[in-house]
Structure formats: structure tokens, C-alpha cells
Amino acid sequence: MDANTEVGMIQPIAALAAIAREQGALFHTAAGWTAVGPQGARAECLSWIEANWTDMRPTLIRQMEEDAKEARQDWTRAQAP
Question: pTM here?
């Protein structure tokens, strides 16, 4: 949990971060950083980011696009003589 001292709100940061992670989305908070992935030199970290963060869109959006693509292919196959 994290508390906002200006307005007195308590927010479940860990739960929100978990939801964002499930969707493959970045989650920013002023509460600080949580280590994800390897830790090391800048070049190592940038290499890991390039290899693992290939698509920054949320998982739901990627899945919807994949489903639509499959549906178009199925429709095209069904229309073929």
C-alpha cells in the first residue's frame, strides 16, 4: 500500500502493478522502483529491454488483434472456391 500524504488516499500499489504486469503494461508510481528483470550494467539492461519489451501494447489489445486476424483468415478461407 502507498499513501498519498497530500489528499490522504491509500492506494494498493502492488495490486495495481500486478494487473499492469499481467497486461504487459508499464506502471509508474512516485512510490519508487521495483526491480524487474536482470540488474546490471546499462548495456545489459538495454539488451534485456530490447529482447523482452517487443510490443508495449497491453496483452488484451494484442490478443484482440490476433483474434481478429484469425477471424479474417477463417473468413477468407471460407470464401475461397
Answer: 0.42
Helix (H, G, I), strand (E, B) or coil at 14: helix
Instruction: Give the C-alpha separation, 36 to 38, whole Å.
Output: 7
Cβ–Cβ < 8 Å for 13, 1 = yes
pLDDT in tens, 3-29: 666 777 777 888 888 888 787 777 777
Residue 53 cell numbers, joined:
519489451
Quickly list H helices, the chain. Answer: 13-22, 42-52, 59-79
The b/e string for 42-80 (b: 16+ C-beta within 10 A; e otherwise) is eeeeeeeeeeeeeeeeeeeeeeeeeeeeeeeeeeeeeee
